Amino acid sequence: LVRLRARLARSQNALGKGLLSLLSADRLDESTWEEIEDTLITSDIGVTAATQIVESLRTKVKVLGSRTPEEVRGLLRAELLAQIETDQDRAVRTEPHAGVPAVVMVVGVNGTGKTTTTGKLARVLVGDGRSVVLGAADTFRAAAAEQLATWGSRVGAPVVRKDEGADPASVAFDAVSRGIADGVDTVIVDTAGRLHTKTGLMDELGKVKRVIEKKTPVNEVLLVLDATTGQNGLRQARVFAEVVNITGIVLTKLDGTAKGGIIVQVQRELGVPVKLVGLGEGPDDLAPFDPEAFVDAILG
Ligand code: GDP
């Protein structure tokens, strides 16, 4: 966790340093406030949140009169937290119920990090002593099933897969059946993320979910978003939210961007909490999303 925090801090530092130095100016005039707002918008936090933060900070700074650097930091910390915290549960539901495995579907556009996240999540669970089966329901690219199989043997989780072009729903069904037969704790199903048509995607993801639900409820539908893709990622998120009931967001590649502000926008738009963050390509680079640690990483 310490290592992950350090990595997060490195990527988010520019944002925090910039904001703190702007806010610490002797006189905060109109152009400085604008600069603060621009800096926030550059981090992909969104115009609405940036405006709210700046307005609230202005009021509080005015009330304070003179400000110490600690006060400035405290004010900014509280504003950022207020934008990120929600009262929704951020725990990923992976606990089996009454002897039936929990099922997690991982959805998102290709390249966002679905397969990697599936592998990393399995690693966390297996590390906690849980048994896991992985379903390679992205059957459109042979490479995807291959990649998941590599993760499976790396983390010690069997992978259910079929030939390229097989029906994704039948792979999901087989994975869940296998999970039930073996009495495992959690089945994680990696899906295909072709966004060529909304109806195509809806049909496919809907079918995968329905077929799983013939056997057992789907506990989580995690939407994987690449933090470096900004507004484009947000557009993708909207499409997925329309076609399937998302229960949590995984924001990947936060290690490679200072645009972590996208967390605020995506939660606000979808009304769903960010549950996990990806902080690298390695098996241990997945962490629960902790708003306080995130804000502290930004502010250094
Ligand atoms: P998928 O097509 O959605 O299944 O995406 P993949 O899991 O194949 O990931 C696409 C690329 O992103 C791969 O090169 C991964 O190693 C990389 N990747 C995934 N998650 C992260 C992350 O959190 N940080 C970084 N730096 N790279 C990541």
TrEMBL record:
- Topology versus the membrane: Peripheral membrane protein
- Cellular component aspect of the GO annotation: cytoplasm; plasma membrane
Task: Give the record's GO biological process terms.
Answer: SRP-dependent cotranslational protein targeting to membrane
Keywords of this entry = Cell membrane, Cytoplasm, GTP-binding, Hydrolase, Membrane, Nucleotide-binding, Receptor, Transmembrane, Transmembrane helix
- What EC identifiers does the entry list? 3.6.5.4
> One GO MF term, please?
GTPase activity
The keyword Transmembrane belongs to this UniProt entry's keyword annotation: yes
Q: What class of enzyme is it?
A: hydrolase
Q: Which reaction does it catalyse?
A: GTP + H2O = GDP + phosphate + H(+)
Q: Which residues form the SRP54-type proteins GTP-binding domain?
A: 273-286
Chain sites annotated for binding GTP: 108-115, 190-194, 252-255
Where in or outside the cell? Cell membrane; Cytoplasm
The record's note on quaternary structure and interaction partners says: Part of the signal recognition particle protein translocation system, which is composed of SRP and FtsY.
Sequence similarity:
Belongs to the GTP-binding SRP family. FtsY subfamily.
Protein task: Involved in targeting and insertion of nascent membrane proteins into the cytoplasmic membrane. Acts as a receptor for the complex formed by the signal recognition particle (SRP) and the ribosome-nascent chain (RNC).
**Name of the protein:** Signal recognition particle receptor FtsY
Q: Which residues of the full protein are shown?
A: 89 to 388 of 392
